[in-house]
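To illustrate the input format used throughout this study, we show a single complete record. The first block contains the structure-token representation of the backbone; no residue identities are included at this stage. The design step must infer an amino acid for every position from geometry alone.
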């Protein structure tokens, strides 16, 4: 069972920082799948993340308890490989806004799976916070004319199903890998998938696409951000947040992603309306309740 601490100022700053990084990740996923196939994009992203983890693996190698290799593998698959591949396929057909709102299902799956499989204790505040935050995220997308929610239902459900794996991953780290250094968890997880990722990247034509596509180097720039910043560095920070607060609080970062998408749109020249402000308030209110 996971032990939790009340989140302080540092935890909130960490959460908003992760939302900033992952908010841009949806934009870069959308741009990269216009250049690479979903499999190529995933394999490049995993390869770059693995390369970024090599220094951490060297430093923390003695602290990695390899007897838990199956948990490390589960973290790599459920926290990165499987959901990232689903989002890569889905964002060829659905908008980034829709992908962001569906990512907000992560705390819901975290709570459900935590109660059913990991002895998580839920209370009325946590449930109310999740429902309020999720409602705010839905309002932000579906009542904002600029979000232009579109796409096939099957691909939208693919995004939703990906968050189930995120929820499972968060519970594994929060309940099964307590006491392991976040960098050791991340490094061990990606070392297990490093060589397969390189082989898939080459075998799928990812290297050839990067070298021959007119926008290949531009695409590698997006993938470098996704792999090094959005996956490698952000995962270490996220794992640390999971261990120092709670799985429910940490996964509530996904409620901020629709808000971050709105702010990115404003930075790109879009206006912000009163519905945007109302929905953002609901999301932040849900975050406050979920931490209780």
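Output of the design step:
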């Amino acid at each position: 069972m996971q032990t939790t601490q009340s989140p302080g100022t540092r935890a909130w700053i960490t959460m908003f920082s992760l939302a900033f990084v992952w908010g841009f990740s949806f934009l870069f996923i959308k741009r990269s799948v216009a250049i690479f196939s979903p499999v190529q994009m995933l394999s490049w992203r995993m390869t770059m993340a693995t390369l970024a983890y090599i220094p951490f693996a060297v430093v923390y190698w003695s602290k990695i308890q390899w007897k838990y290799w199956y948990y490390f593998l589960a973290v790599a698959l459920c926290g990165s490989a499987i959901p990232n591949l689903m989002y890569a396929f889905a964002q060829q057909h659905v908008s980034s806004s829709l992908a962001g709102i569906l990512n907000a299902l992560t705390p819901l799956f975290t709570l459900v799976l935590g109660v059913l499989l990991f002895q998580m204790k839920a209370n009325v505040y946590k449930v109310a916070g999740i429902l309020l935050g999720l409602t705010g995220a839905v309002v932000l997308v579906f009542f904002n004319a600029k979000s232009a929610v579109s796409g096939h239902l099957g691909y939208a459900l693919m995004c939703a199903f990906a968050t189930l794996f995120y929820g499972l991953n968060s519970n594994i780290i929060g309940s099964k890998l307590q006491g392991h250094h976040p960098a050791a968890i991340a490094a061990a997880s990606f070392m297990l998938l490093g060589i397969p990722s390189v082989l898939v990247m080459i075998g799928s034509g990812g290297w050839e696409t990067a070298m021959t596509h007119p926008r290949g180097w531009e695409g590698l720039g997006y993938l470098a951000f996704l792999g090094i910043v959005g996956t490698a560095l952000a995962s270490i920070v996220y794992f640390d947040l999971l261990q120092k607060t709670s799985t429910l609080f940490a996964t509530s970062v996904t409620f901020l992603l629709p808000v971050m998408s709105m702010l990115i749109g404003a930075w790109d020249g879009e206006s912000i309306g009163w519905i945007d402000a109302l929905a953002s308030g609901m999301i932040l209110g849900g975050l406050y309740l979920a931490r209780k």
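Structural context for interpreting the output: The chain has 13 helices and no strands. The radius of gyration is 18 Å.
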